[in-house]
Amino acid sequence: MRSQLYFPAIAESLPIALGIVLATLPVMVVPLTLASRGAIRVLVSFLAGYAGGFVVVGGAVILSADLLAFASGDASRWTVWLRLFLGIALLGLAWHKWRGRPKHGEDAARPGWVKLLDTVASPGAAGLGFVLVVLNPKNALLVASGGLAIAAATLAPAAQAVALIVFTVVSGLGIAAPLLLWLMLGDRLIAPLNRIRGLLVRYDAQVLTVVLAGLGLVVIVRAIGSF
């Protein structure tokens, strides 16, 4: 019986979580860099902060949707419109990312915070992980979309909490992959990690454009289907 309560919220947010795995590929520069220099404790701190950002943003969105439902008596219409807005915003981000892609022959600009990765310690890594979710518009919109999907599927707090945990874990699989691979392969992973990091930086705009556009369409279609 409980599984029937949890499943709709998990199923509704799962496609967004899987899309986030692809959309956050550029952020894999962080765990790849930390793993390649053997800073495993720092990497664990980064993952903890990153997961904390998901819980904070997703939880705030779910709570806001629940309060709206309590105040209005029927939040389904507002939830649908908010999901449509987020879907359109994701399409806008995809277009912006495509317009800002490096021209042929140009190297992709590296974010300023990437330079910190060679010296960052555990507290700073946790803060960086949290900020990359909460203050990054792309990541915050994606997590908010997942939170709204959960809130639209169920009003049961326990089901929402379980769905948010599953959403966070699935969304973080790509970011956690370097740590898991490092635990299995150790130093043999350094050279492949450095090559993967270079590819992610080079094709950041192309990957994000496709993923953000796809997720935006998914969010819009699912929102329209809720009318």
Structure write-up:
- The chain has ten helices and no strands.
- It is mainly α.
- It has one domain (2-224).
- It is globular.
- The mean pLDDT is 80.
What is this entry, summarized?
The chain has 227 residues and is an all-alpha fold.
Order of helices and strands: HHHHHHHHHH
Number of strands: 0
How would you sum up the major sheet? Answer: none
Rounded average pLDDT:
80
Distance between the termini: 27 Å
Quickly count the helices: 10
Share of helical residues:
over 70%
Shape: globular
Structural class: mainly alpha
Q: In percent, how much strand structure appears in the residues?
A: under 5%
When the domains are counted, the total is 1
Low-confidence stretches: none
Radius of gyration based on Cα positions: 18 Å
Topology (SSEs and partners):
Blueprint: H1 2-23, H2 29-36, H3 40-72, H4 76-99, H5 122-134, H6 137-153, H7 157-171, H8 173-185, H9 190-202, H10 204-224
Features:
globular; 227 residues; mainly alpha
